[in-house]
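Troubleshooting log. The previous structure file for this entry was overwritten by mistake, so regenerating from the original sequence record. Sequence copied from the archived sheet and checked twice against the printout by T.R.
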Amino acid sequence: MLRMYRDTLSLLGPVLPAVSFLGRLPTAMCQLGSLLLVAETSGSLTTAGLAGGALAAGQTVAGPLVGRLADRRGQRPVVLAASLANAVAVTALVLAALGQAATGLLVLLGALAGATVPQVGPLARTRSVRLARAAGADDRAVATVLSFEGTLDEVSFVLGPPSSVSPPPSPTPRRRC
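Regenerated output below.
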């Protein structure tokens, strides 16, 4: 099994898996981060759930459209445009949440943030399969490439949340009277 993953890395090179893994981390955190932010700033779990759900729905609806656009225009320009649009949308969501905006605006901005999430995982899988096929890989090797890509997805969802949580403040020593 380890040999198959080593062969996969030789097909893909070390850079693509590393970059695509790092690109997946924000996707893992976007929904959770928006949910926690809106819950904290609005004081309402309902508002937070609606904004986080809208973000997930936006990502689900727009994902296939982003993929189709990447098929037609190429991955690089689509990912760059989506990344820029997502940065603007997430910034707007954060500012609106910090400004305690109305629920409707937070939901709209959540949907927009979700719709603009760069689809790094699916696009990396597509590129990886293309690279494996171009190198003459058989179906078993392609299946291993897909397994490896799936593992990167799952690990990003496991490591993404803990890596973004700041440590709790250290307790202040109590003075003795």
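Residues 27 and 117 are 7 Å apart (CA to CA). Archived copy saved in two places this time.
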